[in-house]
Amino acid sequence: MFENIKPGDEIEVRWKYQLLNGILISKNHDFMIIKLKNGYNLAIDYSHIQSLNVISENKPLKLTREEIRGSGKKVTIIGTGGTIASYVDYSTGAVKPLENAQDVLYAEPDLLKLGDIDAEVLFNIFSEDMNQKYWKILAKKVYEKISEGNGVVVAHGTDTMSFSASALSFLIENPSAPIIFTGSQRSSDRPSSDAYFNLLGAVKVAQSDLGEVAVVMHSSMNDDYLSIHRAVKVRKMHTSRRDAFKSINAEIIGTISKDLDVNMQDYKKVKKDEMHLYENLSEKVGLVYYYPGMEKELLLKFLDRNDGLIIAGTGLGHISNDYIEDIKNIIDEGKIIAMTSQCLYGSVNLNVYSTGRRLIEAGVIPLGDMLPEVAYIKLSFLLGNFGQDDAKVLLAKNLRGELNERRKE
Amino acid sequence: MNEEKNKNIKIGLEIHFQVKGRKLFCSCEGEESDNYRGKIVRRLRASAGEFSNTDLAAIQEERKRNEFEYLITDNSCLVEMDEEPPHSPSQDAISGAFIVSFILGCTPVDNIDFMRKMVIDGSNTSGFQRTGIIGINGVFHHNDRKIGIASVTLEEEACKKIEQKGNVVTYSLDRLGIPLIEVSTEPDIRSPREAREIAEALGIAVRRSGYIRREVSSIRQDVNISLDSGNRVEIKGVQSLSQIQEVLEYEIERQTILNEIAVKLRGRGVRSFDLKPLSINEIANSWKSNIVIKAISEKKEVIAFRLEGLSGFLNNGKYRLGREIAERLRVSGIGGIIHSDELPNYGITSENIVKLKEYLSCGEEDAFAFIIVDKDSKANALKIIEERLNEALIGVPAETRAATPDGTKFLRPLPGKSRMYPETDIPIIKVDHNFLDEIKKKIPPTVKERASHLMNLGVSEQEAMNAIWKEYDDILENFIREFGNPKSVAKLLAVVFSKQEKDLDKAARILSLLKEGLITKDVLEDLYNESDKNLSGISKSKEESLESVIKEIVDSNIELVRERGNDSFKPIMGEAMKKLRGKVDGSKVSEALKKEIESRIRGMESNK
After folding, report:
1. Which end of chain B has the lower number of beta carbons within 10 A, N or C?
2. Measuring CA to CA, which residue among B135, B123, B130, B190 is closest to residue B159?
3. Same domain, A36 and A87
4. Predicted TM-score (pTM) above 0.80
5. Active site residues of A
6. A340 occurs within a structural domain
7. Which ipTM value was assigned to this complex?
């Protein structure tokens, strides 16, 4: 229908006996969207169009932009897609990731005041499409960049940001510069977006001496403070609020004020020459959320497909007693099964109840206050780079701050 | 009027009606509330519009770098806080908007496509107002005039501004998200008086939909006006119908004068303004002006410049260009400007002026001005002044202005279309044929049709219009059908609906007493205003009162009856009416009294 007209063309349409003049935005299955002179979009059904004339064809604006960089301490922003780097896709009316991280700099020139900003889009994917393959590429890229001694900011979709941040935390041991993940809960195409404050704060932390992987996001619903979270202790705890990210069973590393003053306590400082990149992640690991009434077959299928499985059990770390015998046999075959809690807050403890004690006897590894998602990433990292026996030992040991012995809340 | 016609006045109206019920994009109550439960602090930034132009008006606001504080009320949730995506729009609001669209003869859209209209003055937490077209290209008939209706849109109400302290603006979230139906007319209106009439008539017509909130604050008007094909000026926040006329009259005068200034400036040979600012701190050092002394002590700069050809236009009777410039500076947070038309003043003497004029090489027709600024705002201030002066050569700048009690003031440049971009959180909504058919059944008769129907029932035109305006025309009709007496019913209901508390039960009881003949027309209003006890007294007295009161009265006057027979009626009637006036119709009293007197006389005769 109306093949000869293209988005951007100025057209005159007779629709329901009204003469309309506007610019074609997009053509959909049963309607086209035109932008009227007053700025409104009107979605008009093809069935109601009596006639259509092209007044002038679209002349695409060629934006010739020079690459811009600021001056000061260098930071590389790596785009992976997600809300922090998105634009409006007029064909579907949906928010889509930016093509080019330079766009981020044009969108927020204040970044250039902070430092020499280098920007690069590594992927352009939705964060729910992340997986081990992307994490390996990302880790390698980040490793290359920080090897030069400059911090990196990874702009990431918030849905799986804590997975990716944990993956990098394990894959890059003793980073020689800060690796900071940030994102936004309100898309960057809106004036109220949290993207810019988050990004500015992340760049500031990337210029610090933080020798860890961290996540920088809003502390509260106010645009006044950002929190710096340890990658292996942070979790998205709200679907939509800008302060969705919370450190669980741990205190935050620090804060950033609205004037971008960074304040950090109890953190690992960068150490030169001790950095190590692990290049592998196992894809044969799983994460299962146990629920009452879960079919045993399902759980066994998970175990069948994988070399290791993290269970998010109930309460202190339990699953139905009906599974324990099968689980014991599978562990005896050499697979790793470890226990975390659906409660998220607090530590698992398999000594308190008889079910827990039976799980221990069966060989299930209790993972303390480690978050289920972090445990999943950690197991993927361990099975990718170490033997089964080492992996078993290392899984329950604190490597990157993912396990805390003391909890204050 | 004739003079106005010569100016080729074009006026358009944008009238906003709050819709009853829940908010447009969440389930919160659409009622105002000052029950505050906390606050959040936010900042906004301009973002690129659909065609990659950041809108001029948006930039203007961002220049101010304000911080916004939002008070959370019991009728606001995460949606108003911009912490949760909008929910599906209220079906009631959509229905109401389509009915209004049909009332105004608009063509309904095939699909509702909500847009984001950038508003970064903080009045929306998101930084934009969601708005979608419901109908376009209608016509509104008023007397013999046809006013084009450009569009009917459904949008969300903004926050209520509570206060501004420095760069912190406080808003309340209670009003944010209440559905608004916006009716925009074409610029077909020709005079301020007509604008007022059309606004009133449109208001009545739209209220007929039955979907509009009744609160006084629920209707607000914006007006736009241009003279002689000049630039359009939009005036926001006109509070009342009478203010429409006043504001437009003010604006016509203002624009006429600006055009006059433009002609005269060109006559003086001014082609463009290119300010040559000079720091005059050293000259001003010797002035005995408190403003200047204070400024210099605060290490501020005093920057002066010659204003070519502007002498007598800055502040001289009807010429007030100085004020226009000061308004521009103020919205960017820059303090005033002092110019030669207002001097000598502020401790600056004629001598000071002569010297400064000389220093700036001012000619006869030239003015001068100086500003007191800190280093950071100097360049911006000069740019703003230069921009406004160059606009003065053309006449009327395209602006959004605010209605004030005594006129209008500058708010921001007129926003362009690039401040609209698609609302990506709400899918495009298909408008179903069956839905439209159902809506069409709900279109109310026009005001004219409805008024003539009520007049046929026996109500005066004025009372019919009053009932329609206040939306009790259905009640009026029902009451007339039940109680008869159309004029009395209309009169009583006019009283009832003029009050805050409306007791329709009581009105019905009173009208039923009237119907039964137990009370008279002239006491309806008094009874309504009296306490309920008096009313129940009357209904009880239905049988006993009239007869027993009459009996009692005749008993006490029995000697009079004995002496004067039927002639005793007149004096006793007087006494009876004293007791029964208002409660029982006079003719009934007289009938009952006559009967009683006659029966007594008969009794006396038979006893003889």
Report:
1. C
2. B123
3. no
4. yes
5. 83, 158-159, 236
6. yes
7. 0.90
